[in-house]
Write a structure and sequence with these properties.
Largest sheet: 5 strands, mixed, barrel
CATH class: Alpha Beta
Number of domains: 1
Structural class: alpha/beta
Strand order of the largest sheet: 8-11-9-10-12
Bound molecules: uridine 5'-triphosphate
Number of helices: 11
Strand content: 15-25%
CATH superfamily: Spore Coat Polysaccharide Biosynthesis Protein SpsA, Chain A
């Protein structure tokens, strides 16, 4: 029987250099899309997928993220006294009840694989999810992680989210070549981190959602540095493929690369246009702007 996925690792120890100076004091994952920070959308997606334990891998000086999820009795009392019921509800909904938030430290930004390894003690020897909050995935149906957990529960194999990418962008992604099996699932044949476009094995880019077997920790522990001199999660996944099938899931939903300025603007616009209060205002603003 497959074990259920109860824990999700959120590697949030990167330096976020593409957003400096905004990310000098504020972690990238606290940048907002409308009125919620990126990390909150990611935690909501995890909770919808049945996750009970959130494991933040931070730089150690990123307490602001833990603080976002901690209860603030003084703020709640203030809002209650002011009669701001709707705002109070939104503050209380930041973390659904029964969800635990734990923190592991990555002392140095040695790469995504290393960040995941830093969570090994808190995860233990069980399958787990990894979510990169700056890859934001909007979905009208089940969230991307829910889709992947469903596949894991059906077949018991690790699952990695993929989407078609322009081949000229291959060197920004892990790139996977896949073959469809008799059950219509995509089995990864090879996966390479940041290949040059001419070396990319396909146009399927790995994006920031993973359901991984606990065996990956032992493999990451013995991994050397890979592309960019970092310990790469993709290289750990390539080793995992030596001992078990790893599936690729072309998720249903729209991904925004909120680690880039353009992606964050796109996400903001898309969420604003889906917001009853904002949509008409934005349309009027954009129409007036194109007229001038
Ligand atoms: P990025 O490649 O986006 O790096 O990391 P970054 O440092 O966050 O941002 P830039 O490129 O300097 O602007 C992808 C994810 O992996 C995490 C990041 O926090 C982000 O969620 N990460 C990366 C770590 O937690 N540790 C690392 O050593 C590297």
């Amino acid at each position: 029987m497959t074990r259920s996925i109860r824990k999700a690792v959120f590697p949030v120890a990167g330096l976020g250099t593409r957003f400096l100076p905004a990310t000098k004091a504020v972690p990238k994952e606290l940048l907002p899309v409308l009125d919620k920070p990126l990390i909150q959308y990611a935690v909501e997606e995890a909770c919808d997928a049945g996750i009970e334990t959130i494991i933040l891998v931070t730089r150690g000086d990123k307490q602001a993220i833990s603080q976002h999820f901690a209860r603030d009795d003084a703020l709640e009392a203030f809002l209650e006294q002011k009669g701001s019921k709707a705002v109070l509800e939104r503050v209380r909904a930041i973390l659904p009840s029964g969800i635990e938030v734990l923190e592991a430290t990555q002392e140095q930004p040695l790469g995504l694989g290393h960040a995941v390894l830093c969570a090994s003690k808190l995860v233990g020897n069980e399958p787990f999810a990894v979510i990169l909050p700056d890859d934001m995935i909007r979905s009208d149906g089940p969230g991307a992680l829910r889709q992947m957990v469903d596949i894991y529960e059906q077949c018991g194999h690790s699952v990695v989210a993929v989407e078609q990418i322009p081949i000229e962008d291959a060197s920004r992604y892990g790139v996977a070549a896949v073959e469809e099996n008799s059950r219509g699932l995509l089995e990864i044949q090879t996966v390479v981190e940041k290949p040059a476009p001419e070396d990319a094995p396909s146009n399927l880019g790995v994006v920031g959602r993973y359901v991984l077997s606990g065996e990956i920790f032992e493999l990451l522990r013995h991994l050397g540095t890979g592309a960019g001199g970092e310990i790469q999660l993709t290289d750990g996944i390539a080793r995992l493929m030596d001992i078990d099938t790893v599936l690729a899931h072309p998720f249903e939903g729209q991904r925004f690369d909120c680690g880039s300025r353009f992606g964050l603007v796109q996400a903001t616009l898309e969420y604003a246009m889906a917001d009853d209060e904002l949509a008409a205002q934005i349309e009027t603003f954009l129409a007036a702007r194109t007229r001038t």
